[in-house]
Amino acid sequence: MAGLSFDLIALQLFAGLALGAIYVLFAIGLSLIFGMLTVVNFAHGAFYMVGAYVGLYLISLGGNFWLCLIAVPLLIGLFGLAVERVLIRPLYGRGIDYPLLLTFGLSYVMVECVRIAFGKTGYPFDTPEILQGAVNIGVGYFPLYRLFVIGATAVVLLALWLFLEKTSFGLIIRAGARDPQIVRVLGVDVSRVWLIVFGIGTAIAGFAGLLAAPLQGVIPEMGGTILAEAFVVTVVGGMGSIGGAVLAGLLVGVVVSMTSLFAPEMAKVSIFALMAVVLVVRPQGFFGRAGLLS
Amino acid sequence: MTSKVTRTGSMSRRRLLTTAGAGAVLAVSPFRIKLVQAQEATIKIGFPVPLTGPYGAEAQDQVRAGQLAVAQFNDAGGLNGRKAELVVRDDKLNPGEAATRTLELVEKEKVNFVVGSLSAAVQLAINNVTKERGIIFNSISQSDAINEASDFSKYTFHEALNPHMTSGAVGRYAFAKFGKKVAFLTADYAYGHEMVRGFLEVGKQFNIENLGDIRHPLGTSDFSTVLPRLQALKPDILCISNFGRDQQIALKQATDFGIKKSTQIIAPVLSHASRVAAGAQAFEGVIGGSSFYWGIEDKFASTKAFNDAFRKMYDGKVPTDYGALAYGGVRAMLEAVKGAGTVDTDKVIAALEALKYDYYKGPQYYRKCDHQSVQSVLIVKSKSRDMKNDADVFEVLSTEEPNEKNLRTCDDLGHKS
Description:
Chain A is built from eleven helices and two strands, in the order ααααββααααααα. Chain A has helices spanning about 5-35, 45-60, 65-90, 95-120, 145-165, 170-180, 180-185, 190-215, 220-235, 240-260, 265-280; strands spanning about 135, 140-145. Chain B contains 14 helices and 15 strands. In chain B, the strands form three sheets. Chain B has a seven-stranded mixed beta sheet with strand order 7-6-8-9-10-14-15, with helices on both faces. In chain B, strands 2-1-3-4-5 form a five-stranded parallel beta sheet, with helices on both faces. In chain B, helix 3 packs parallel to helix 13, helix 4 runs parallel beside helix 5 (about 120-135) and helix 6 packs across helix 7. The chains are: A mainly alpha, B alpha/beta.
């Protein structure tokens, strides 16, 4: 195929970053929960999917997309709180595989419940009217909605950073992740901290699902494919590192995009090739702390 | 030791005598027919389809319509009172899973026939099992390979269209109207490959220029990284050969990227269920092929009858293209059983070969050499306005009438005459 212009390569790079933003948004909740709670949340994809369905449902009741941007993370976050309190909490201190298996099973339950409630077939999810269409970004046309997703991701990251780094509750969360025992001795209710972290992580998953819905429609299995990609992002970035997840997410997006340009058949494999290379060179990932899993 | 042998010997001799005696009585008795009939179980049709996964929407319609064909057969009295039953299995769109499920259907469920599949690749896996076991398989999804001598067997029938017919019809329509510069976005497996081969072959007659073919894995959820490239090629026609959820997402994202402004998007197959699942916006203006659309009920009495029966069974819903194929596939099988008066494999094969039928879309028949159903191909365009109801999704632009000339010849397929 001929026609490799500078504009095309620039546009391709941009498409990769845009795709990376979606990966980042999805992986960030996963990474947050793992980093603070050392819970590998296999139900993250299911929360993402439920987020999209809740959005769909609210819109069918007469809500609009903008309202959903607030309501969906709140509802999914509340659901996450309940899951942590009832299911995850009894498993703390029992080894990393207990919550892993539990959330794995939970993801199946959630997908089946959605299939029962909404059916196995997917639903369309129209892009909000004012975000429809493509705009010229200087090197070519790019869908407006994808630009919006990049912006939304940046807002979420900024809010999360401010919360963790600049508030006293964020300080407690960070301290709790380092050494829960000392924090407990200081009179802080660590289990309450973990509850809230899990809630925030799932709320972001639901938010990501809602944002993904106008890109690809809504279907019960939508969380499955992206979960594999999100694990690659968290592993490459370093399990538990939020900064690592951001960098790795964008990198994975660009790698997929550039592979698509030259060898589209390889695009899916390229992610895993990248992960293999990173694991060989730097087993803990970009910014991972060694020994978190042991 | 010796006494034991004698004893068992005498036991079996006695049993032999009783059995023979009973048999002799039965042979001359009028009760025999009834008794044999009571022993004969229902006629079982194995039905492996991908209920879960990217083609789930279409697969569920296959089951609905297949059930309708069975219900009609049973309501009409079955085969001298013998009822039929559809034994549905989820093949998960995976050839290995499909082979296992089919084997299970044959070995455990003891099905008489197999109808089903919804993938060019998966149906070959099913066909491998059924042809080895000597069970008739009527495939209801697209494939070219299944017609070829290497995959074909006398047990293999193909009710669905094949990619050669479909892409041929769509190509003949689109290449004459929208331009010669064509780019392809293709699902990287048998279905996509066969479609592109068909388009390029018919394209020779129109001197089309192939700008390039980008292949994506089955089950892709984001096309944003291949769309800028396709757009940069500036094609007159973008031909997207994928199916189910892949097609829904690809069309949705191509719309978002604004490709439709300067390019006509065509697809070998536009599926009704996918159009409903993806919404009007994504499919707007896309032109493609189809084996069936309920709207042709004005033209064919058989379509009207099929639609009405379907509406009655499923509270007003209309059947879709892949549903109609399942109906045709199952009904052809059951009509052949009725015609043959038995479920005996060879007799049913002969009955199927002799069938000239019109069950839902106008006249059809199975070509002798490859058991491909010779039938019409519809060219449809997706609507986005003036829709009368939820099911009013396509406009039929033209119809390619059934004609063996549009199929590859028996010689080409490697069948010795």
